Automatic annotation (TrEMBL):
Claim: Magnesium is one of the keywords in the record: no
The protein, known as: RagB/SusD domain-containing protein
InterPro entries for the chain: SusD-like_N (IPR033985), SusD_RagB_dom (IPR012944), TPR-like_helical_dom_sf (IPR011990)
First-listed, main subcellular location of the protein, grouped into a coarse class: membrane
Family under the similarity heading: Belongs to the SusD family.
Subcellular location, record wording: Cell outer membrane
Pfam families given in the database record: SusD-like_3 (PF14322), SusD_RagB (PF07980)
Domain SusD-like N-terminal: 97-219
Source organism of this protein record: Allomuricauda ruestringensis (strain DSM 13258 / CIP 107369 / LMG 19739 / B1)
Keyword annotations: Cell outer membrane, Membrane, Signal
């Protein structure tokens, strides 16, 4: 959250100076207000906290939010690319400038804790945690339910964002779900610093508590835009958290169904070829409405992915669907067209018809105004089907999978003949196809304990089988954390 502490102090100062008499100012003369003073002001005026929440949302797409000037350091969507490449579903098929090649696609960062990519993932998500902790503390702390509805909604957003950050930390920094393994420090207060690693179970307990409380706190919250989290976002994140444990299938089904019933509609066959560039798309649950004011250009997700943006994808760092995954998409599946119809020299299974600026001028978009998607309702259909299949409810799994595929395929009759492992395999495949390039393949790989086998359009490790829990697919606690945190002395 760039300048979040400044915003916190300035907004609170203005409000208190306007509302307090001279005696108060004489008793507590200070250029900056304490956290306690901010909390007192926030109890009656939610505007004190709103600026900080807005800052967290901005951090999610800010450049440099991972602490570097790298052109892959641009918030949450940057780590979506990391995950997609580690999963093998996204190929760096042409590399001219070298972004992602050594550290990510050749696994140098995930095997060497001194590499910068470990640091930026770690720093970004813990930065979100700390910013959320500031809000939670100002609103009374972890165990307080604010009196004002507006503050309840702010508390719910902060706890949802904290859980979201911890979830991605658990995914990127541990090989698999092991409740007893000590994997990460846990911080639930701004006063927490340099903590030891705690068990996976302890982190999951905090995430589940945060999200269950958020679902209650956000009940009745009518958000101003899909750029904010609401009850359905909290439910969706909780579904992902529980699904990653592998033993909460019925709860995952209930949560995903609640989101599906939340007023969203699946993207149509036309929309899945429509550019994935508009937050108002009916099937999008959460994202960000980017405008020129956001100041994004080359250093952005679009600047790495889109041929029709002034981008690395246009200039010589092509990102493509894995050739084997592409071959697994039926010819009559509309999603095959997302990667079809090559344009000039750009032929290597790039997502030319999935992610694009509407003008479709090669290298044309310089100032980013196309939006980011963080979460779609299609994910809930697929996660619901997966949980149902794992729970032995094959009929339910088949039905909801067919609901999704009805807008993708001319016939879904083949689904009726699937059961057992064949059904699970099909759901896993459809998840990889439907959500390609959206940062969800890595999560699915780990949940389903899959194996990465790269197709022939990758530049390295082609044909090598890599299991989901292989060290090469998981980041290392960065060198800077080990040097600066006396409670963590080694990787293990």
């Amino acid at each position: 959250m760039k300048n979040s502490n400044i915003k916190f102090s300035v907004i609170a100062s203005l409000l208190l100076l306007a509302g307090c008499g001279k005696d108060f100012l004489d008793e507590q003369p200070s250029e900056f207000l304490t956290q306690e003073q901010v909390g007192e002001a926030a109890a009656n005026n939610p505007a004190v906290i709103e600026g900080t929440i807005s800052g967290i949302y901005s951090t999610m797409f800010d450049t440099g939010s991972g602490g570097t000037t790298g052109h892959d350091d641009f918030g949450h969507k940057g780590y979506d690319i990391y995950g997609d490449m580690l999963s093998g579903d996204m190929a760096l098929s042409v590399s001219t400038y070298g972004w992602y090649r050594a550290d990510i696609t050749e696994f140098q960062a995930t095997q060497d804790f001194t590499r910068t990519r470990n640091y930026i993932v770690w720093r970004y998500y813990y930065r979100i945690v700390r910013s959320a902790n500031l809000v939670i503390d100002a609103l009374g702390g972890n165990d307080v339910i604010p009196e004002l509805d507006e503050n309840k909604y702010l508390m719910g957003q902060a706890k949802t964002l904290r859980a979201h950050a911890y979830f991605y930390l658990t995914q990127y920094f541990s090989n698999s779900y092991d409740p007893s393994a000590e994997i990460l420090p846990i911080y639930d207060s701004p006063d927490d610093l340099n903590g030891p690693k705690v068990t996976t179970a302890e982190i999951y307990t905090l995430m589940e508590k945060d999200l269950n409380e958020s679902i209650s706190l956000l009940d009745g919250f009518a958000r101003g835009s899909k750029g904010q989290v609401d009850k359905t976002v909290a439910q969706a994140i909780l579904a992902y958290v529980l699904a990653s444990k592998g033993d909460s299938h019925e709860e995952v089904m209930e949560l995903t169904q609640a989101v599906i019933n939340g007023g969203y509609t699946l993207m149509s066959s036309e929309e899945v070829l429509g550019g994935f560039n508009d937050l108002n798309t009916s099937g999008w649950i959460w994202g960000v409405d980017l405008t020129v004011d956001a100041g994004l250009g080359l250093v952005s997700w679009w600047g790495q992915m889109d041929l029709f943006t002034y981008s690395y994808a246009w200039a010589g760092d092509a990102k493509a669907i894995d050739s084997d995954l592409y071959a697994a998409i039926p010819e009559d599946d509309v999603r095959k067209q997302q990667f079809a119809e090559p344009i000039g020299e750009y032929t290597d299974l790039m997502p030319l018809n999935k992610f694009y600026h509407p003008d479709r001028v090669i290298g044309g978009q310089a100032n980013i105004t196309t939006d980011y998607v963080y979460l779609r309702v299609a994910e809930m259909y697929l996660l619901h089907a997966e949980a149902a299949a794992k729970a032995g409810e094959a009929g339910t799994a088949r039905t909801i999978l067919k609901d999704l595929l009805a807008e993708r395929l001319p016939s879904t009759a083949y689904i009726d003949g699937l059961s057992g492992q064949a059904l699970l395999d099909e759901i896993y495949l459809q998840t990889r196809i439907e959500l390609w390039g959206e940062g969800k393949s890595y999560l699915s790989l780990k949940r389903n304990q899959g194996t990465v086998v790269r197709g022939d359009n990758h530049l390295s490790n082609v044909g090598t089988a890599i299991n989901y829990d292989d060290e090469r697919l998981t980041f290392e606690i960065p060198q800077s954390e080990i040097q600066n945190n006396p409670s963590i002395s080694t990787q293990n």
